[in-house]
Every structure is written in structure tokens, then in C-alpha cells.
Amino acid sequence: VDLVEPVSHFLETARQSLAVEKELDSEMHRAVNFFCVSLQ
Q1: What pLDDT digit, counting tens, does each position of 1-40 carry?
Q2: Could you give the residue ranges of the DSSP H alpha helices within the chain?
Q3: What are the angstrom distances between the C-alpha of 9 and each of 13, 16, 28?
Q4: Residue 35 and which of 1, 16, 18, 26 are 20 to 30 A apart at CA?
Q5: Contact (CB, 8 A) for 36 and 6
Q6: How far apart are alpha carbons 39 and 22 in whole angstroms?
Q7: Which H or E run includes 39?
Q8: What is the spatial distance between Cα 32 and Cα 28, in angstroms, rounded to a whole number?
């Protein structure tokens, strides 16, 4: 998730919804790294 102004609760929501282990064909298509840093 790319945010211009990183907000920790947006990042936490993304972590919860994107990193959920579902029955996927491949582990390659799973979000695993989340960083709360600004673009500047």
C-alpha cells in the first residue's frame, strides 16, 4: 500500500487484510512487508 502521508492505522488495516493467509496457489502473491515511512 503506497500512501503519500503514512498513517499507522491505515497501514495496520492493510496488514490485516492483505497479509491474511488464504488458500493461494503461490506464496509469491502475498503481501508480507509493510513500512510506515514517508516518501520524502
Answers
A1: 565 666 788 878 877 777 665 555 556 666 777 777 776 6
A2: 8-18
A3: 6, 11, 25
A4: 26
A5: yes
A6: 31
A7: none
A8: 10
Q: What is the distance in angstroms between the CA of the first residue and the CA of the last residue of the chain? A: 16
Query: What single-letter amino acid sits at 9?
Result: H
Q: By C-alpha distance, which of 31, 10, 13 is closest to 22?
A: 31
pLDDT at 9: 83
**Burial letters for 20-31: b for 16+ Cβ neighbours within 10 Å, e otherwise?**
eeeeeeeeeeee
The C-alpha cell at 11 is: 497501514
Q: Contact 29/18 with Cβ under 8 angstroms?
A: no
